[in-house]
Design a protein that fits this description.
Elements lengths: L8 H9 L23 H19 L8 H9 L4 E2 L5 H5 L6 H12 L7 H8 L3 H7 L3 E2 L16 E2 L5 H6 L4 H13 L5 H8 L3 H5 L5 E2 L17
Parallel strand pairs: 1-2, 3-4
Helix pairs in contact: 5-10
Length: about 230
């Protein structure tokens, strides 16, 4: 291996400048100075990767999005998911959407129920803040018709346990309240879509209940007297 030149730094610089001596190569671990317009290698790799993903999204508009970065990129390319008109294929593109959540969304959409904003979607699907933030760049909440009044901040009412007066406070007529109680006695309601389907409720009524009702395990059975011990 060649030895380091013995000349002092000033003499070495003169010889390098005159072309009589080759410059020393910096060690591999040493950082390389870059101009203001130059990119680091890892930055360049990230740009290349982003362009590849963008190309795939352009070539396949229904390509599932793998993570939040791809969701943001799809938004930059102009894709939006119309929450109140989206198809099953559109919903399946979102990362982390569970089949049971998709089923609920499609059943409510078939019943004419619309969501007015991110809070409605988060409450309906029980989404965590990170999951909601991941989807938000591509979500579009376009309302078709007259939107419902803003939801109350009161605690959600359990429709599988609520009494007649509580049900009527939600806007149900006495006849619909009685029908709900009869249906509930047969079996508890699973969710809003199940409730709407079994009671044939109008979409406008159900829309106003998003975030205001919930569905527990069912009504509590009769309270039995304590067992008497033999004397």
């Amino acid at each position: 291996m060649a030895r380091r030149h013995w000349l002092d730094p000033i003499a070495r610089q003169l010889l390098v400048a005159s072309g009589q001596l080759a410059p020393l190569r910096p060690p591999r671990s040493a950082p390389v100075a870059r101009g203001p317009g130059e990119q680091r290698g890892d930055d360049a790799d990230a740009v290349v990767e982003r362009e590849l993903v963008a190309l795939k999204l352009r070539q396949d508009p229904q390509r599932p999005l793998a993570d939040a970065a791809e969701v943001r990129l799809a938004a930059e390319l102009g894709w939006r998911l119309d929450v109140n008109r989206a198809s099953a294929a559109d919903w399946r593109r979102l990362p982390g959407l569970e089949p049971v959540q998709l089923d609920l969304l499609l059943r409510l959409q078939a019943g004419g129920v619309q969501l007015s904003g991110p809070d409605d979607l988060a409450q309906l699907l029980d989404l965590g803040p990170d999951q909601l933030q991941c989807w938000l760049p591509v979500l579009a909440f376009r309302w078709y018709g007259t939107p419902p009044p803003s939801a109350s901040q009161a605690a959600p009412l359990d429709l599988n346990r609520a009494g007649r007066e509580e049900l009527e406070s939600l806007g149900l007529s006495p006849e619909r309240s009685a029908r709900l109680l009869r249906e509930r006695a047969r079996r508890p309601f699973r969710d809003l879509a199940d409730l709407q389907d079994r009671l044939q409720l109008p979409a406008a009524l159900v829309e106003g209940w998003i975030g205001k009702v919930r569905f527990g395990n069912g009504p509590i059975g009769p309270v039995l007297p304590p067992r008497q011990r033999p004397a």
